[in-house]
Amino acid sequence: MMSVFDSPAFDNHEDVRFFCDPVAGLRAIIAIHSTALGPAAGGCRMFPYASEEDAVFDALRLSRGMSFKSALAGVPMGGGKSVIIGDPATEKSQKLFEAFGRAVNTFDGRYHTGEDSGTAVQDMDWASGVSDYIHGTSTEDAGDPSPATSVGIVAGIEAAVRYKLGRDDLEGLVVAIQGVGAVGYGAAEILHQKGARLIVADVNDQAVQDCVEKFGAEAVTTDEIILADAEVFAPCAFGAGINDETLPRFNCDIIAGSANNQLLEDRHGAALVERGILYAPDYVINAGGVIWISDAMENGFDPDRATKRLHAIGDALTAIFQRADQEGRGTNEIADVMAEEIITAAKK
Ligand code: NAD
How far, in Å, from the CA of 24 to the mean position of ligand 1? Predict the structure, then answer.
């Protein structure tokens, strides 16, 4: 028998609702972790979950993650997440996303959402036909969040380089980028402009070739990239890349990239401390997209305000690095502690 309160991912969530619309084929769960800092925001995932328990676990875990991310990004938003149980390849329809939009409306503005894995701009366009709380539609000003994420990654790399290496510029610094897709390529472009030397790897040969031609990057294989002799290793492809197998092989001072869930397990954060590698916690350094998109929720999109917040990612990281050193703990642990403190203080 499944229970929400007993789920390992339950963390005093404010509200967890189950929605069913058999005509539209909707079965969804929306979890709100906290609205202490503002309306809860978090994307809508669609996935053919093997069990209802898995879907609940994901909604609880991801909504808490959104609370923490917004708290440290300094945006006045809480954390929420929705999951639609279904196969995004075969079960999408206008009716389904309209039913989803009506589900979002039941929170009367306490929950805002947008696309996430398994959903796309078209789906948000459908949902926004019935709901004012849908973002990332084809008509919204903020548009694709990836360039903002790239800007935030570089701001984070600069803060880490300043903290760990005592350097104020990136001139001649070597950055190894694993995955030069939307975010990795954008970061490569900015890093190149700032004088960094790049080593890149991707399964997409064309993306690698573009970096070689435009940014003078050195290309290595996807197996070699984590061994690269570089000051910074930037994982921008996939999660769980920091694990028992890869840990002894890193040849860098800093790990700072956009991939979600970079640590296979929390204990790998402490293992990085042991190895003397400074880790920029993923959800702090990759918050640029959230900062950009959520800005549209505050009296309309203001690119200057959003850009200022993107650059503040570096300040948030520096505060985390300092406290992690003072307390001798992993930066991942300290990020969670600091996020919880911000949310708790806002509740008082
Ligand atoms: P993307 O799909 O555009 O880019 C990922 C790149 O990684 C692709 O070019 C892909 O070919 C490459 N890749 C796949 N397997 C690889 C391997 N084994 N070795 C090297 N490269 C490999 O995705 P993206 O939007 O650039 O996002 C990158 C990461 O950042 C993802 O983990 C994503 O969840 C995370 N992220 C993205 C954003 C955003 O705004 N797009 C925001 C926060 C977090």
Answer: 32
Distance CA 128, CA 202 (A): 36
Residue 142 has pLDDT above 80, yes or no: no
Ligand 1 centre from 146 Cα, in Å? 10
Query: Is the CB of residue 155 below 6 angstroms from any atom belonging to ligand 1?
Result: no
Top-level class of domain 146-287+315-340: alpha beta
**262 C-beta closer than 6 A to ligand 1:** no
Domain ranges of the chain: 15-64+77-128, 146-287+315-340
Q: Return d(Cα 172, Cα 55) in angstroms, integer.
A: 46
- Do 15-64+77-128 and 146-287+315-340 share a fold? yes
In the predicted structure, residue 155 carries a pLDDT above the cut 70: yes
Centre of ligand 1 from the C-alpha of residue 38, in Å:
29
Between CA 283 and CA 94, with CA 56 as vertex, the angle to 5 degrees is 90
Check: CATH 3.40.50.10860 for 15-64+77-128?
Answer: yes
Tokens of 326: 């003072």
Q: Is 60 in the pocket of ligand 1 (CB under 6 A)?
A: no
User: What token pair was written down for 26?
Assistant: 């909707």
* Torsion sign (Cα): 6, 11, 15, 19: negative
pLDDT tens-digit readout, 279-326: 999 999 999 998 988 887 777 788 899 999 999 999 999 999 999 999
pLDDT tens per residue, range 270-281: 999 999 999 999
Q: 69, 154, 183, 262: which to mutate for ligand 1, most atoms within 8 A of CB?
A: 183
State pTM to two decimals. 0.93
